[in-house]
């Protein structure tokens, strides 16, 4: 049975309230029992999905976490994505594993750059979006300004499903259009504690505003939403727990069940009997005490049973999956079965990589999980030269996770790491020290970007003979051209028409 699965991501700009909303969704879904429980772990007050040391220090999410919970017979698989702009590559891969998304917008700030970027990724894959306008209990933009900005900036029809009655100091509650009831604040804290009242008479200006919101925008259309052309809009406060129940009910009612996934042989339906899935993330050392390594698989079809043998496309021989994991608000449980749409963690020792397809027949290859050309390249230098072996192991692990890319130059002993954004370099140094006990420094590299090169053996040999100083291999042994500038790339493209210089590499 696949129809009761809802696999979705939360996307937002940093500080829009995504982590708080995640907590309240888990609270509403019964995955945790006390508000704040997700943030209270040991001495560190942080979201339970934010487990990495650098995340604790900076208060940001730099990895993608999975949290599963069940409510009223529906299984929700929530994928929390990094909000920081430097982590768009990891976020992109996470968004390949979801069927819908919740877009969180700060009522005062509106559409911010990272929100727009993530939205475009969703649009590329026709991922339907529910919008949650957060922090309406604070001073913010007018109702119409917010709705019109979403419509204009993202070229979407907007269909408001609720509205705040006043904002900031004038905030008196959130009106739910479907039930015509108002969620009211309790006491001076403006916390919502479950009090709902029928909509009474509103002051003249407010009544007129609410009427215009209800009548002036399109009615909700399920087909338009699921095709990515319309977004239902909910208003609330994650911190004060306004609007969260309505949001989770909308995900249950409207968000699509598991969708077909693209493969090299056409879309694979969730109804297919064969168990298939793809690895969209690998995470090492989630529990530093056990040096574990978990591959996250989005199940695409079939009914998985514990102990089943699946063949990874990168390995070619079957592996028995004895200890598959489901993630319940960061608590782990062994999964005896899993259905299409579920995310299961597969412990392994380096056999599974991002982009691998797993299947019973080994005849399916899912597509659409690329590597991106790095925008920053750095040489890596050891503080202790005797730790070369440990560094190689660490770089292999982290490149398999997709945190970095590693290039091995034809000339020169120093390896080069490539990243999409600066923060990834900070994460690299932090994790080398914390998880692998390897002290390393990053030094400038004479290159600005990289391109994967393909062509005939003769064309590649001719290019290699003339450009050896600019050549490297990636961890798969594929040839890479390290360019000093964009002009350098364009020059080589024109000069070598028999070769392709690609800014992405399908995994």
TrEMBL record:
GTP binds at residues 12-19, 80-84, 134-137. Residues 253-272 are annotated as: Disordered. Pfam families: EF-G_D2, GTP_EFTU, RF3_C. GO terms for cellular component: cytosol. It is found in: Cytoplasm. Keywords: Cytoplasm, GTP-binding, Nucleotide-binding, Protein biosynthesis. The keyword GTP-binding applies. GO terms for biological process: regulation of translational termination. Residues 3-259 form the Tr-type G domain. GO terms for molecular function: GTP binding; GTPase activity; guanosine tetraphosphate binding; translation release factor activity, codon nonspecific; translation release factor activity, codon specific. PROSITE patterns: G_TR_1, G_TR_2. Belongs to the TRAFAC class translation factor GTPase superfamily. Classic translation factor GTPase family. PrfC subfamily. Increases the formation of ribosomal termination complexes and stimulates activities of RF-1 and RF-2. It binds guanine nucleotides and has strong preference for UGA stop codons. It may interact directly with the ribosome. The stimulation of RF-1 and RF-2 is significantly reduced by GTP and GDP, but not by GMP. PANTHER family: PEPTIDE CHAIN RELEASE FACTOR RF3. This is Peptide chain release factor 3.
